């Protein structure tokens, strides 16, 4: 471990598996916004008149578009509708506690002002402004954590970057030169020019040994010791775990972890993909992930003009409205000690168990089996409506007839108890 200015000890993920000293905000956050935005957003899922479905950000790979053709998109990329305040306000209204946006995805195009390449939004587009500068400032103003997604290995623009196998011979690539000349200098720009970053989100590790990854991580941590690195940095050197796409573990998982979900069926914008998850689905998914002790990072895919799809705006605002009333059952909660039940799931805090009732029992009687602790009070969170309850042995029965709002996708009941579960 190396001594660093100001930090009594530089946290070194490769050395010990103890948690990052700055992990608690992430564990308490529970809800984040993911943003995939790049040149692919302008293609909107179509190339040469052919529609592609799923993962719009992979269209260059799906259609095997040569770099000489793909780079031309930049000349028409002019997101005049991009409004950092609007995006940041949506994050606030949605109730997310952090945002992670693609600074550079696999296509290799830099959505920020980079001195390392000419294939960036300042030099290669008519837009000539740095949206990441405005967005990081707008988020900081609202006290919502901000971070970047940087595709550290896959770079389909660079001859020595990972995984463009249709223009370049993968076996001939010198990945180290790509890391030295592009990935590392660009990550240093991102960790230097946009203020404190809550998170650096990596994807698809590759082209580096364990030792090289350790050196890579150590070099970057020196710039922002407090920043959390996601698990896809590789070699187990991340600070929290990311599950596969749109995956929730079946049972509670210890430690800091995150489930990432698309809002429709694609990370990048696809004009013909309207399969947006409803506000109810978002609220249930968030409670489901929280009931197992994790965070949900939900994605939006702005279009090429810089507009976040209307359904994402409306539905995230609706989910945020629910969180304004019921956030106490989510933020800073831990996994529920009563497993999922026919009526829903549970989350916990010291002396409190939150019942997330998705499916209201027909007779309005909620059974919580195996509840050993003595119960002192039960009420519905939204409106603090006290509810009658009885215990038969370890079975707790709650009558929720007094809860009028029958339409809620998730009615949160609070069980206050003595002792520890
Ligand atoms: C968030 C997504 O991350 C990756 O896709 C993955 C990476 C890893 C897994 N995985 O580990 O299951 C699945 C999809 C990217 O390729 C994709 O474009 C998107 O950015």
TrEMBL record:
One of its GO terms (molecular function) is alpha-L-fucosidase activity. It is an enzyme of class 3 (hydrolase). The keyword Signal applies. Keywords: Glycosidase, Hydrolase, Signal. The keyword Transmembrane helix does not apply. Residues 6-327 form the Glycoside hydrolase family 29 N-terminal domain. GO terms for biological process: fucose metabolic process; glycoside catabolic process. One of its GO terms (cellular component) is lysosome. It comes from the Bacteria. Its EC number is 3.2.1.51. Coiled coil: none annotated. Belongs to the glycosyl hydrolase 29 family. Alpha-L-fucosidase is responsible for hydrolyzing the alpha-1,6-linked fucose joined to the reducing-end N-acetylglucosamine of the carbohydrate moieties of glycoproteins. This is alpha-L-fucosidase. It comes from Niabella ginsenosidivorans. The chain holds residues 16 to 436 of 594 of the full protein.
């Amino acid at each position: 471990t190396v001594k660093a200015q100001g930090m009594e000890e530089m946290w070194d993920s490769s050395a010990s598996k103890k948690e990052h000293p700055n992990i608690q905000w992430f564990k308490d956050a529970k809800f984040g916004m993911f943003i995939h935005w790049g040149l692919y957003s302008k293609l909107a899922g179509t190339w040469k008149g052919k529609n592609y479905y799923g993962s719009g950000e992979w269209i260059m790979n799906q259609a095997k578009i040569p770099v000489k053709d793909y780079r031309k998109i930049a000349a028409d990329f002019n997101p005049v509708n991009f409004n950092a305040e609007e995006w940041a306000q949506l994050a606030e209204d949605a109730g997310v506690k952090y945002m992670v946006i693609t600074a550079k995805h696999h296509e290799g195009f830099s959505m920020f002002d980079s001195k390392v390449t000419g294939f960036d939004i300042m030099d290669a587009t008519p837009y000539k402004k740095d949206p990441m500068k405005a967005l990081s400032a707008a988020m900081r103003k609202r006290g919502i954590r901000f971070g970047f997604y940087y595709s550290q290995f896959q770079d389909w623009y660079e001859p020595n970057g990972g995984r463009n196998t249709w223009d370049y011979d993968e076996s001939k690539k010198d990945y180290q030169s790509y890391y030295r000349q592009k990935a590392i200098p660009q990550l240093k720009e991102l960790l230097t020019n946009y203020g404190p970053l809550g998170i650096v989100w990596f994807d698809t590790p590759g082209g580096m040994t364990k030792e090289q990854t350790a050196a890579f991580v150590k070099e970057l941590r020196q710039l922002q010791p407090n920043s959390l690195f996601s698990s896809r940095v590789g070699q187990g050197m991340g600070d929290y775990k990311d599950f596969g796409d749109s995956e929730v573990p079946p049972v509670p998982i210890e430690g800091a972890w995150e489930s990432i979900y698309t809002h429709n069926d694609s990370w990048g914008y696809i004009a013909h993909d309207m399969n947006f998850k409803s506000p109810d689905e978002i609220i249930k998914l968030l409670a489901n992930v929280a009931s197992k002790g994790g965070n949900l990072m939900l994605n939006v895919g702005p279009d090429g003009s810089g507009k976040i799809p209307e359904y994402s705006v409306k539905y995230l605002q609706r989910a945020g409205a629910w969180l304004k009333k019921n956030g106490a059952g989510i933020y800073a909660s831990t996994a529920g000690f009563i497993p999922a039940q026919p009526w829903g799931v549970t989350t916990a805090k010291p002396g409190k168990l939150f019942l997330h009732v998705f499916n209201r029992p027909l007779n309005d009687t909620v059974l919580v089996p195996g509840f050993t602790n003595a119960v002192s009070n039960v009420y519905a969170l939204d409106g603090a409506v006290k509810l009658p309850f009885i215990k038969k042995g370890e079975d707790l029965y709650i009558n929720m007839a007094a809860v009028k709002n029958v339409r809620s996708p998730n009615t949160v009941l609070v069980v206050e108890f003595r002792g520890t579960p």
